[in-house]
Amino acid sequence: MADSSLFRPALSRMMAYAPGEQPPPGKYIKLNTNENPYPPPPAVVEAIRKAAGGPLNRYPDPVATAFRVAAADRLNLPGPEWILAGNGSDEILTLLVRGFVGEGQRLRLPYPSYVLYRTLADIQGAAWEQVTFENDWSLPNAFGESADDLRLVLLPNPNSPSGTIISPDRVSQLAGSLDCPLVVDEAYADFADQNCLHLVQQNERIMVTRTLSKSYGLAGIRFGFLVAQPQVISELAKIKDSYNCDGISIAAATAAMGCGDWLSDIRTKMNATRDRMTVQLASMGFSVVPSHANFVWCQHPNGKHPELYEFLKKNQILVRYMQFPEWGEGLRISVGTDEQIDACLMLLERYLS
Ligand SMILES: *Cc1c(COP(=O)(O)O)cnc(C)c1O
Fold it and tell me: pTM here?
């Protein structure tokens, strides 16, 4: 243990963020971190091969121009200057917190949701406050109330672990009553039928983050991006590492932007699996909220979530057991292939009957 007086006090005080377990490949059916169970589009794999044969002795494009041009086109944005590329959307979130929230200032997040935001505030020496979702997973008006020292509001939409969504109209309304930026983390938006991208053009203080980790099956290459107004992008670009995205991931992400048909097929397939999971889990007595993402949040009235988690794990299936103090607990199960989900559901059925 290092001498804690060597470090900034904020660091000594904070707890490390614990990401979902990443066991050696092949050991488990992995339904715990919302990765895509299918491999990425073949055109992306080909682009990675080609990039690996390219000039690796040269630094990559510091601002990932090829990707930004392709993404602006794909998302119908006015131009590449509306996009900032990052080493995963987690890096983008780090840049947002660093850029907007000073030491001693505050960020807001809903509860229960993505715990990483709190860690980012802790690293910064900033404070965080949580606004609890209503029972129906809507947001109270308090989520949009301005407050002294409140510098940033973060909203995963669809939310994790619930998979529920706040409508763009409501997001726009909440942003309208805030003095600070509202960042909509759309890590799962490709599985939903609405998103907030169009709001970015209407309001400088609304920003959207996206990732290629979930829908495109590219968690292994680390690529995410921010959509915001050009003057916001150029300010945030000042604080990123010069070469925050490597040449291979830029090539992969650029190719992915040309894979619209692949994405729409995967989305159809995975959403069908998700909806089947929802029905079958409900028939086993779980309470399940309809999900707009690639995972399902479920709670059983018997309360035996740790036992269910352990039983599945003993049978080589990894899901996420989550516990939210003063709120409750449950299992978050990622959408896998149909075979993987059948195996998971069969085990749950066996345990519960
Ligand atoms: C997975 C996830 C991310 C992280 O995405 P990366 O691009 O892999 O860093 C961000 N936000 C939420 C809500 C997520 O679930």
Answer: 0.97
User: Which of 35, 89, 185 best tests ligand 1's pocket when mutated (most atoms within 8 Å of CB)?
Assistant: 89
- The 3-class SS string of the chain reads CCCHHHCCHHHHHCCCCCCCCCCCCCCCEECCCCCCCCCCCHHHHHHHHHHHCCCCCCCCCCCCHHHHHHHHHHCCCCCHHHEEEECCHHHHHHHHHHHHCCCCCEEEEEECCCCHHHHHHHHHCCEEEEEECCCCCCCCHHHHCCCCCEEEEEEECCCCCCCCCCCHHHHHHHHHCCCCCEEEECCCHHHCCCCCHHHHHCCCCEEEEEECCCCCCCCCCCCEEEECCHHHHHHHHCCCCCCCCCHHHHHHHHHHCCCHHHHHHHHHHHHHHHHHHHHHHHHCCCEECCCCCCEEEEECCCCCHHHHHHHHHHCCEECEEEEECCCEEEEEEECCCHHHHHHHHHHHHHHHC
Per-residue pLDDT tens digits for 177-235:
999 999 999 999 999 999 999 999 999 999 999 999 999 999 999 999 999 999 999 99
User: pLDDT tens for residues 122-152?
Assistant: 999 999 999 999 999 999 999 999 999 999 9
Instruction: Provide residues with CB under 6 Å of ligand 1.
Output: 34, 88-90, 114, 156, 160, 185, 187, 211, 213-214, 219, 224
Q: Could you tell me the domains of the chain?
A: 4-39+261-352 (3.90.1150.10), 42-259 (3.40.640.10)
